[in-house]
Amino acid sequence: MTVFLVGAGPGDPGLITVRGLDLVRRADVLVLDRLAGDQLPLEAKPGCVLINAGKAPGDVAMTQDQINACLVAHGQTGQLIVRLKGGDPFVFGRGSEEAEALHESGIDYEVVPGISSSLAAPAAAGFPITHRGLSTHVTIVTGHENPDKPETQTDWAALAKAGGTLVVLMGVGRLTLITDALIAGGRSAETPVGIVERGTLPTQRVTTGTLATIAEVAEAAKVRAPAVTVIGEIVAVREAIGWAERLPLAGRVVAVTRARAQADGLTRRLTDLGAKVISAPTISTVPLAGDPIDASVYDVVVVTSPNTPPLLLDRIGGDARVLHGVEVAAIGPGTAEALRQIGVVADTVSERAVAEALLETLQDRIAGKRVLIARAEEARDLLPEGLTNAGATVDIVALYRTEYAVPTGEGPLAADAVTFTSASTVRALVAAYPDRDLTGIKGISIGPVTSAAMRELGVGIGLEADEHDLDGLISAVLEVLG
Fold this sequence. Notes:
CATH architecture of the largest domain: 2-Layer Sandwich
Structural class: alpha/beta
Radius of gyration: 27 Å
Distance between the termini: 48 Å
Strand content: 15-25%
Strand order of the largest sheet: 15-20-19-16-17-18
Number of strands: 23
Number of helices: 16
Largest sheet: 6 strands, mixed
Helix content: 25-40%
C-alpha cells in the first residue's frame, strides 16, 4: 500500500478534493493535523485508527520527528495510510519533510494537493489577491520561521519594495515585527491590511486596518490563530465584493441531532446559508432482520418515515414493481421524497408529517381493506389503532430500531440553536445530558409530536416549524436566527 499525504483544504470540509475525500473514507489509519478540522474524521470508515498529530502553540501532540516515524512505521504495515494535513501539504505544511522521510525508508507515497488557506481565506473574506489595476502579482510568505535559525530568511525590505499583494501565513504572533519591517523597508504605512481568522468556516472573522494600525487593532480585537494576513490595496475592495458575512446565518452555530445517515441534507442546507453546523447525532437507526414481505396481498402500504423506504424495498425483494396496484401512503412530504428515491411515487401523502394527518386522510375509505404499516420498532400505536377502528385489517412490520448515540466533538448545548427532527432525538439528547438544565436552549422542532416530547422533557422550544419537513425546519431556523 501507499502512504497518502492529503491536503484537507482551508477548513471548510466541503473544500477537500474529491480524491482526498475518497482516500479519507478508505483509510485504515488517519494521521490528523490540527487544521484538518473535526468534520472530515467523521467520514472515516468503522475501525479506522485515528492518530492525533496536531501542533499548536504550547500544545504539541507529536513533534515532526515523531510524525515522520509514525508515518514510516504505519507505512510498513501494508495498510492504507492517510496523513491528513490542513491546506496543501507542500505550502508551509512540512509535507516535503514527511515525503523525504518516507522516501528514505523506501515507502511509496503519493501527494494529493489541497486548497491552501493562502488562497482560500482571502477569497472567502472578499479579498481578491490579484485584481486588474491594483495587484498583478502575489507573494506568499510564512510569518513563523524555524525558531532555531539564528536569523530570518525572509527579506522583508525586498518584499516591501516588491509591491503587489502579500499574504502572510502564521504571522499573528509576530505581527508588530512584520509590519514594522515592511514600513522600514519602504511600504506605505497607509497600506490596507486584512486579517482573516478561521477562513472559509462559518465562524470566520475579518479584522482590517493599515500597516501602521493593524497590530494594535488586532490586539484589541483579540485576533487569534489560525489566521491569514493580507497586505495590499486589494483589501479595500472587500466592501464591494465581500460575501460570506452577508449569508443569512453567517456566524451562527446550529446543532443537528438527526442520525448521521439522514443528516447530510439538513447539514448541507444550513452550511449553504452560512451556519456553522455541529454534527451531534443523538440517535442511530439499526435495521432489523425479518422475513420477506409479500406486498401484493395488501391493499394499502403505509410508510411512516424517511428511514423506511430503502429497508422496505429490501424486504419486498429489491423490486419496487411489486407495489404495482397497491396504494402507497406516506406520512409527510419528506417520506414521499424518500420513496421517490427508491422509484416509488406515493399515491397518498399527508400534508403534515404526523400520523394524525394520514389517519384523517385514510379513515373514511379504509374499511374492509388490508393494510401494512412499515415503521420503526418503537413507533406510536395511534395509526394502527385508528385504522383498525375504522374497519381495516392492519399488519405492522418493524423495519428498524432507533438507538441512542452520545454526541461527540463539540457539545450541541453550545449552539445558538438545536434542531430536532423527531421525538427520539429529543429523548436521546436528554439521556445524553441527564444532569443539565435544557430549558434554556433554542430548540427548533420539526412538528407537534417532537414539540410535545420537548415540553414533556423540559427542552426549550425556540420555534416549531409551520411545515413539518426539512423545508419547514430550515425556515424556522432562519426565523429564529436569521
